[in-house]
Design brief:
With about 300 residues, the protein is α/β, with parallel strands linked by helices. About 25% of the residues lie in helices and about 20% in strands. It has a domain of about 200 residues: Spore Coat Polysaccharide Biosynthesis Protein SpsA, Chain A, CATH 3.90.550. It has 8 helices and 13 strands.
């Protein structure tokens, strides 16, 4: 069985370099998709440069999305709801575009889909000992720095399945984070609920917003939930205060009320390096800017 690692890209060279180095010993092919449009619909230059990743060049297949997806709604009223619907179309397009790179992938090969900052742990015993066809990796959640742990919720990030089971990448990304028992008859009529699914404990790491305050602001202004961020009125200075105080201001448990999403005040904690990927620990001096050393 070969492992195919698939992700989308905006401009995250730091995370991509770390991703390649952590996963290289396990992965047979890296698929990178970049669009000429952000999730907010802004036209952007192409940022991926394969020459920055010479060590992995032979494993990388790079795909470019040239056009906006069908169904984009002209948003004359600047509606937050329409912004979100358009974002979802662009996200779905970026995922499903990966299909264009699977012609040489065999039915039993494992196809993995992650956001750029979600890194699966293929050394997990829950993965290595499983014969299942579908996997969801339960990952540790970090903010701003590689060792600032957000322990409020687990992160169900990377999702994977054998190619023969792959309906679409949008389907894969939207799988329910739960293994259902055999007596759940409704699984027979659902594409999103499965019995033949392995939740991979010790399933890796989600390193979100490992960026400067300015770069986080740019990301949040263009990512899938940019409509919520627009309403929040948060500035670069506000983000910097969150970083300095080790605070997450986004409420991952909030209801759909947009006004409540950016009113959290959850304190991050510094954790021991032993729970981090070996590559990061061994190269800690190289990435010292992205470690919190205050405790």
């Amino acid at each position: 069985m070969k492992i195919i690692d698939c992700t989308t890209y905006y401009s995250e060279d730091l995370m991509l370099d770390i991703r390649f180095n952590i996963l290289n010993e396990f992965v047979d092919k890296f698929i990178i998709v970049e669009s000429k449009f952000s999730h907010s619909g802004e036209q952007k230059k192409l940022n991926f440069d394969i020459n920055k990743f010479q060590k992995f060049k032979d494993k990388i297949e790079y795909l470019i999305i040239e056009n906006e997806p069908d169904g984009i709604i002209e948003n004359i009223e600047n509606s937050s709801e329409i912004k979100r619907k358009n974002s979802l179309l662009r996200i779905e397009q970026s995922y499903d575009f990966i299909m264009n790179a699977l012609d040489d992938v065999n039915d039993n090969d494992l196809v993995c889909l992650s956001d750029n900052d979600e890194i699966p742990n293929f050394n997990s015993e829950y993965f290595k000992k499983s014969n299942n066809d579908i996997f969801i990796f339960k990952q540790l959640f970090f903010y701003y720095k590689f060792n600032l742990f957000y322990d409020l919720i687990p992160w169900y990030g990377t999702k994977a399945c054998r190619k023969k089971k792959l309906l679409s990448f949008s389907w894969l990304r939207n799988l329910k984070n739960k293994k259902y028992p055999f007596w759940r008859v409704d699984t027979l009529f659902s594409n999103l609920k499965h019995m033949n699914l392995q939740i991979v404990e010790n399933g890796g790491w989600h390193f979100t917003n490992i960026k400067t305050a300015k770069d986080i602001y740019t990301k949040l202004s263009n990512f899938g939930h940019h409509n919520e961020f627009d309403i929040s009125g948060i500035s670069v200075e506000d983000i910097q205060k969150c970083i300095d105080n080790k605070i997450v201001n986004y409420d991952h448990k909030a209801d759909k009320s947009l006004e409540k999403k950016y009113n959290a005040n959850y304190k991050l904690r510094v954790v021991d390096d032993k729970i981090l990927p070996n590559y990061l620990v061994k190269n800690k001096n190289k990435f010292k800017e992205w470690f919190d050393n205050s405790e």
